[in-house]
């Protein structure tokens, strides 16, 4: 496995789990949830992703805000939590989701190299705008792209094609970064050069194709760029 990626013109980041910490949303309500915040965070995230895949396969698209709310409703019911005020609090907290600590410095380091930077996410435009503004990274990005432009969630190839079309680059000139193994592997199958930001020490996926490299967090990104 090469330790550098050649001829990269654009770095594209997944949003949730890669730039932004989904667990921070439930963690922000620890005063109400107590120790159950971790169970809620895990179940909510799992169900959120499951609903994107199920909607994509069935052809029943809804934007990520609705999917996130539906997943939260399932998770609260599963944990036997009936609290409308808490539900609203958690949904609003998703709009103020925390960025991982290394994100601003990583984007600045790429800018210093003259590298273009973008987000490509399942998130709805309004959700992404809120997250980017809350993190204060809007001036560090050249584009924020949402699946709503094509009406289907990742890992549909048309989502990954948004980046190549928007920037006029070939897939192999894109370095794609995601903390979600299924996303990293699927982006590689599309033709991107891919670094899997394996924050959670997940086992390798058993799907085509293997990412070019694996990093523990985004601070290691620049070491891979020639």
UniProtKB/TrEMBL annotation:
Single GO MF annotation: (S)-2-haloacid dehalogenase activity
EC number: 3.8.1.2
Sections of the chain in a coiled coil: none
Pfam families the record matches: Hydrolase
Keyword annotations: Hydrolase
SUPFAM superfamilies listed in its UniProt record: HAD-like
Family membership: Belongs to the HAD-like hydrolase superfamily. S-2-haloalkanoic acid dehalogenase family.
Protein name: (S)-2-haloacid dehalogenase
Organism in which the protein naturally occurs: Pseudazoarcus pumilus
